[in-house]
# Entry
Amino acid sequence: MKKQILIIGILALSLAIFAQELTHESLVINIEVPVRVFKGSTFVDNLTIDDFEVYEDGMLQKTEAIYLVKKTSIERREEKKRFSPETSRNFFLFFEVTEHTSKLGDAVSYFVKNVLVPGDNLAIITPVKTYRMKSQTLEVLPKEEVVDQLRAIIRRDAVIGNTEYRSAVNDLTSLARELSSSPDNQDSFTSGEFRGMEFDEKLTRYADLLRRLDHMRYVDQQKLLDFAEYLKDSEGQKNVFLFYQREFIPQIERRVLNQYMSLNQDRQDILFTLSELFDFYRRDITVDVNKVKQAYSDSSISMHFLFFTKPPQIIPGVYMAEHSGDVYSAFKEMAEATGGFTESSANPVSLFQNAVEASETYYLLYYSPLNYKRDGKFKQIKIKIKDKNYRISHRAGYFAN
# Structure
């Protein structure tokens, strides 16, 4: 009798495992992909479901539905299978700026007055903290009052949050001017707070300031990944606008550094510091760009990178070298991987306008992957328009978790 009960128990367990395997194999996953299609700079809004081809890891998939969305409204739909698109909007404005300009306030003013509507969620991220505006705010406050509050926040935090950075740049500028002026007379440097310092002390101070700036400009990969994970389960469309200001670092010209090396062949400490400076000038970004790109794509975040340019300051005897090229290339790749917008301009208002216009109208494409397996791998998505040479932007893929 005990043996019979044992056999029945084993059979029941086997059937349960078999049923789980069948459930796993028949699992249907629907992938949503926001797609933007342009002819030149004009959005193409007359495409049908039959115009789209979607590939996953190079394999053609079946397009199940297409929805044309403008702002939060579905303007047109074609469905072989019915879906319920969530078109509510979440906006995140990041201000990575070292100097405040009233044009940033103008950009926010444009956004609140012309883009933001009741029901939208907005977060402002400054060098100091994150501010969240409730979706009901526009129902109880005039837009002008909201604009005034946001302008004050951005202006105050840009000043407070970058005090240490500006102080370091100013000290670097003074030292670079002195160290670049007369390699043949190293004892003649007597200006400002560095009066009385020996040449090697000034050189060490200059290198220490470069290290400080490097630390302040450190891009924290884990924070980027945490942000993507935080947004992954958020409902609706997620648009991140990153304002990044062009940076310049006062440098000692290579010609002058070579002169110092020739004049100090018997000073190993000075030669070591001078060689360190060459390394600082060749800085590489520490972020695994591909890993971050995949995380943002998987979370269906549309990241728009707005590179706010400015001319270098003219300072006699100092070479102002651009120090944001590494960050620019990394964030540009991230924006492209999410189907976002990238542009550079001296005018943040026009940057914002162009980015918003490019993001407000889009198609939502749905497909169910063939032979889907929950293997944890990143699946690459490629969307084409049949027989047309249009510019297409969309997220790069997703993780099959």
